[in-house]
Amino acid sequence: MCRYSIPFGAPATSWRRMRxxxxxxxxxxxxxxxxxxxxxSLLLAGFLWFRTAIYLDREIDAxxxxxxxxxxxxxxxxxxxxxxxxINERVGRASDQHAxxxxxxPTLTPMVGNLQAWPLAVRSAPGWYQINLVRNGTLHVxxxxxxxxxxxxxxxxxxxxxxxxxxxxxxxxxLGWSSLGALLLAIVGGLLLRGAVLRRxxxxxxxxxxxxxxxxxxxxxxxxxxxxxxxxxxxxxAMLGQIQHLIEGVRNATNVVAHDLRTPLAELRTRLETLLxxxxxxxxxxxxxxxxxxxxxxxxGIFNALLRLAEIDSGVRRAGFRRVELSPVTTELLELxxxxxxxxxxxxxxxSAGEIAVRGDPDLLAQAIGNLVENAIxxxxxxxxxxxxxxxxxxxxxxxxVTDNGxxxxxxxxxxxxxxxxxxxxxxxxxxxGLGLSVVDAVARLHGGTLSLEDNHPGLAAIITLPRDPx
Length: 471
What we know:
Elements: H1 9-23, H2 25-91, E1 99-104, E2 110-113, E3 127-135, E4 138-148, E5 154-160, H3 162-212, H4 228-278, H5 282-314, E6 322-325, H6 326-343, E7 347-352, E8 357-360, H7 362-379, E9 385-393, E10 397-404, H8 411-414, H9 436-446, E11 450-455, E12 460-467
């Protein structure tokens, strides 16, 4: 006895694939467009056929009425022989094979015409009828007019409209086949579109999965076609770049904060422990307390700078953006930092190309420019010079450049200078926590600009590039 194994999983798999196809946006869009095309085609063809049918019906009815009236007139003017003669003339015309004529007496006995007998479908009431008549061995649709004539005679005048029915069936058949073809093409097109769309979506899914697994360097591949998917990929890549920047900033900040706070906290603890054990005289105690307060101020400064960076990176300040004229900002900064420059015997100059404005937060912009000016003064030797230059270019961009003739930054340190808490070798022995350029870079990005560092030969040129306010 033979036993056959039935693959129960096959129908379920096929059903899952079918459900997956039906859930596909591309297939549903293609199917929807196909249905819309079919419905619009049916409505258009139906309207055209309706208008054409009305026109043909009117023309046929007009011919039938004219023939019936002519035969009735001949009967009235020339009697029964005149009516018979008129019908024989019309039946004998070879050019009019679709005409139907039948004249009967009051008992419906045929007298003349091209019908063998009175049609059973035509009742006793005069008027219009659409009946089926057998002609040449086939059934034809015929439109007839039943007219009562004087003397009890009955006249049947009509036209064979089978060709019109055939045209209607031909149109319906063509619409049916074209609808089926459109539906099949829509399904095939949907499958092809689904494959094309899924490839692009799958690339995004792979990138997102890699990000979820912790690979923040992964990016969505673009094709350079500038289509919707490419623009979406560029937006996603920009978002991923910002996320990577923030996460790396948090990671670096956490590591560096732990390292930088350990030293002042250890020093503070040692100093306080020494005070407890040694119990020095009051003046020495006050001096040690002053040093401890300095350590605490340094720790508070680190936390304040980190909170400031977090506020800038979050984009909260973007809601208060307004038009900012740079000339008053540079004037205030010049007045603020002139005493510091004079103490170091550094010449501080401001150069501006006229009234230039950007859109942003005036306090953040002033802080960013002030950080650059303060750094330049700090690292410029006595007798050197610092220049704050405001320029604009034809591309509606504003350049805020702070240049000095100090030691500059080594080329190897240029790319890391904006990292949080990073301090180059030249910063050894100087005050600071390594967050100044990080704040400037964050402010520039918040305003849709960039911060670039260049060699000034000698010295450093720090340039903030921002979009110009079109107003």
